[in-house]
Amino acid sequence: MASKKRAALGVSRGSARKHLRMPEDQFREFVARFPGFDLLRTDALFMLRTLAQRIDDDYNVLLAPFGLTAGRLSYLAVLAAVGPAGIPLGDLGARVRSSSANISVMVRSLERDGLVKRLRDPADARVRLLALTRKGEKLIERAFPVHLTNARAALKYVTQSDVERLVEILDKLGQGFDELMDRQSEH
Questions:
Q1: Residue 8: pLDDT above 90?
Q2: Which of 13, 60, 115, 155 is the S-S candidate for 110 at Cβ 3.0 to 4.6 Å?
């Protein structure tokens, strides 16, 4: 069943795993044209992007029985974590790392499916909050344990200290990209 879903999404189990790394011999000439080119760092970024896309694709397959995607699960999980009081839309966007346009599209989709609702902030009527509906709560109660099981299975070859180090590295990488984009916006 999963292989049919993978095929429908264009996800090939073997090819994604085997081709995470860039073949060094194919880039020797390219590297020679650009002094200072760091193949290892470039390879690491390509691998990270490839793996991130693969994780999304695979999670979309695994979550399809619930009518969810990786993105929709992220929104619902944040809303479940903040509870029934809800969260301002801008804060939600920051937590799921999404642009205002993407937030609007996702929220409309989740509202249309009856999974989320908008609330007025009791402290400031101008502020709109987003919270799970009962239907959204029930869905996250069913889907999130499957997500946890899949996450454990996907990380079974990674030790706790590996995960801690990975989180540190990803945080540093995120900091580097934040600084890069801050410099870009200054120009």
A1: no
A2: 115
